[in-house]
Amino acid sequence: AQTVTQSQPEMSVQEAETVTLSCTYDTSESDYYLFWYKQPPSRQMILVIRQEAYKQQNATENRFSVNFQKAAKSFSLKISDSQLGDAAMYFCAYRGINSGTYKYIFGTGTRLKVLA
Amino acid sequence: DGGITQSPKYLFRKEGQNVTLSCEQNLNHDAMYWYRQDPGQGLRLIYYSQIVNDFQKGDIAEGYSVSREKKESFPLTVTSAQKNPTAFYLCASSPGRGETQYFGPGTRLLVL
C-alpha cells in the first residue's frame, strides 16, 4: 500500500526567508501524481503545486517550487520570500494512476509559522 | 462559477440522531470524496465514489453512509452508530485519473 510521510509536524520561518517542507512517499507504481495542499485557518484546502512523476523537471508556481527526487521517493516544497499569508497547514498527497482506484493518500501535515 | 459547495457550514447533532451533510459540485467531475479531519490532524478518507451509483469505503467508514444518485451530489449521513462524530468534514471531487482534487469549504459537526 502507498504511504505518505511528513516528518516535520511544525516549522517556523522568518518573513522574507526561505523554508523547505519535507515529504517522502512509498509506492510500487511507476506513474503517479504528487500534490502539495495548503490549509489556512479558514480550513479551505487550496492546491499549491502539482507534479507528474513522469516529468523530470520540478514544478514551480511563483514563490513555490518542489524538489522531486523519484528514485529517493522524496517530494519537498520550497517556499521562497515567505509571507505572513503563507502561515498554514501544508499537506503532501499522492495519487496513483495505474492502480485503478481514485484514492488520494495524504500525509499528516506540517504546520508552518511565519514570524514577522 | 464552478465549484464545490457544502452545507451547512455548522451542524449540531443530538445523541442518537442521524444527520446528513450535503456536497454538490458543478465541475462535471466523475469522482467525489468525503474526508474527516480532527483538530491538528490530517485527512482521513470516509467514502469515495468514482462514478454514479457506485461508491467504496475508505479508511474510517464505520458509522457513516453515502449515496451517489446524481453525478453532482454526494451526501454523507452520520448515523447514530458513529460514537464520536465531532469533527470537520471535507468534501472533494476530481475529474478522473491522476487529476487534481478540489475541495469544498467544509462542514463542522458538533454534538450537543
Distance between the termini of chain B: 35 Å
Amount of helix of chain A: under 10%
Low-confidence blocks of residues of chain A: none
Largest protein interface, residues of each chain: A-B, 25 and 25 residues
The global form of chain B is globular
Beta-strand residue fraction of chain A: over 45%
Show unreliable segments of chain B.
none
Global Rg of chain A: 14 Å
**Overall mean pLDDT of chain A:** 94
Largest sheet: number of strands, sense, barrel closure of chain A: 6 strands, mixed
Q: Please report the total strand number of chain B as a whole number.
A: 11
Quaternary class: heterodimer
What does the radius of gyration of chain B come to?
A: 13 Å
- Number of separate strands of chain A: 12
Total number of helices of chain A: 0
> What gap, in angstroms, lies between the N and C termini of chain A?
41 Å
Hey, roughly how much beta strand do the residues of chain B contain? over 45%
Globally, the shape of chain A reads globular
